[in-house]
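User: I'm putting together a teaching handout on how sequence relates to shape, and I'd like one worked example. Could you take RING-type E3 ubiquitin transferase from Chryseobacterium flavum, show the sequence you're using, and then write out its predicted structure as tokens right after it?

Assistant: Happy to. First the sequence, then the structure tokens directly below it.
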Amino acid sequence: MEDNRKKSYISYLIGGTVLVCFLYFILWLIFKEKMPMHTYISDFYTNYDKYMQRILILIPLFIFVFIFLSLLKPNSAKRFLRLQASLPTSKIYSVAKGLAEVEGELIMKNPLFSPVANEACIGYYYTIENIDRDSDGKETYRTIHRETRCNFFEIKDDTGIIEVEPEGIELVLLGETNINQDGSKRYKETLLKNGQKMLLVGYADSKDGVPFIRKDEYYKVLGITSSSGITVWNKYQPLLRSFMFTCSIILLIIIYILTQ
């Protein structure tokens, strides 16, 4: 719901900006010298071709800056990936109070039944997408609903078992378990299942002397991912970062040359 509000706000902001610019231009065409910034608008109007060439060259730069800022924008998944790369994996028997990373097999306590396949699971991430088709039959997908549900569960390693309080949990870098398509809708779910080997990052706490893991309120993170998947991510993510940095430098050099 909050994501939809943000998208609506951005859409209204962009639409309002375009409308204001259009109305200003119409008024300038009518009143000319009486409008503020007349000199600048008149120069742009007179030398339209020259300015448009520069604008077309700068468009890739703006796109690059937008993508770069989007990648830098913090969210819980990025915080999880950053923290798991720096945290040592703790043994459950000796886990200390505070932010912690543990790894082990999941133990289901009270099962949930998934919305797509009605499969017993610990928890799930569920999305509904609208399917849009163009004149060539090519399909595009737009997410209209997403939800995460998870019951209390336990995780065990070779030293012990600890309970996880799942409120605010996020499933990171996990592929879809089940996909179903019906008319103009596509339904997808990612499941946490009994016996899966997972890596979890959260806050190790205790209640009445019994340890458990919950969402960390400072870092706003309680994330879980597959042990095998995160190993691959940690191996190749530095290479991806280096590649993106090199491409960014090359793009900036090309844009600089074209604008001279």
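A couple of points you could highlight for students: The chain has two domains: 2-72, 76-241. The first strand starts at residue 89 and ends at 90.
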